UniProtKB/TrEMBL annotation:
Organism, as annotated: Paracraurococcus ruber
Domain of life: Bacteria
Upper classification of the organism: Bacteria, Pseudomonadati, Pseudomonadota, Alphaproteobacteria, Acetobacterales
Domain EAL: residue ranges: 23-283
Protein name: Uncharacterized protein
Amino acid sequence: AKRAGRNRSIPFGPAIAQEIGQRRVLEAVVRQAIETDGLEMHFQPVLALASRRVSGAEALVRFRHPDLGPVPPDAVIRAAEQSGQIAVLGRMILGRVVAAAGRLAAAAGDPEFYVTANLSAGQVTDDLASQIQALLARHAVPPRRIVLEITETALFGDERRAAQVLADLSGLGLRLALDDFGSGYSSLNYVTRFPVDIIKVDRSFTIAMALPARDAATQARQAVVRSIVALAEALGKPLVAEGIETPEELAAAERLRFTHGQGFHFARPMPCDDLCAWLAARRPR
Ligand code: C2E
Ligand code: CA
Ligand code: CA
Ligand code: CA
């Protein structure tokens, strides 16, 4: 290893080398996924807590590198943003989601069944609404079947423009979910400014809900959750607790009056075929 000498002029060490290497790998994963159509979507059910009926499913992208195996989706999405490939990748993901939405709704036997797609910053562009409109027409999928999940980071930047894009989407009949609500700085601001239909709360809060309120951090998180519930109720919006893994977390979400839940306790994200079978088996008769 190089010694960190006093006169060292180039700040190039193992950490940076590793970072550059990692970025190259991630960019290659994205490029390969685009060139070979080599990305997969998994779908995780979202349940209405009162009835335990499946309301919809969240689409989550999966990447597999031939040598490294599965690569975390958030890292790949970030790499796609940084290397200018997000527009193409985002279109591919939305194409998969819209195609799956029709099949899943049929399997669920529920005309209200929806599929949610996560949007990243680079996807919130002026042509997004017309892009999705074309996909819906091609697959004969009604707009209410698609929910777009947006986070603060996806909207960060030109807020006026983001507001216009979201208004266009909402005008088409698509619904919007605010993802990871309460984790950022301006969640409250966004709920007043954008046409939000569903509010989703991150797993970090789900974990805190089920903990004994011994330390100040847990107490603060629990207070934030209570105020989010009050807000969602005042606005009449469905509220989803993400990442429910245990019966205790489920009980806490119910006690706090979350309307919906999602997590490994109910089901892991799975391929469209598997979720179709899962939904068909649970269909109310
Ligand atoms: P997210 O949108 O908050 O998605 C929820 C994450 O929680 C998913 O991780 C899901 O697999 C995981 N999860 C669900 N239930 C549980 C549970 O009970 N316990 C635990 N520990 N985790 C649970 P995943 O699939 O690894 O995705 C991570 C992030 O990557 C997502 O966070 C999202 O920000 C991003 N992402 C995934 N797919 C896409 C995509 O198609 N487009 C965009 N733009 N971002 C995506
Ligand atoms: Ca999400
Ligand atoms: Ca989330
Ligand atoms: Ca999250």
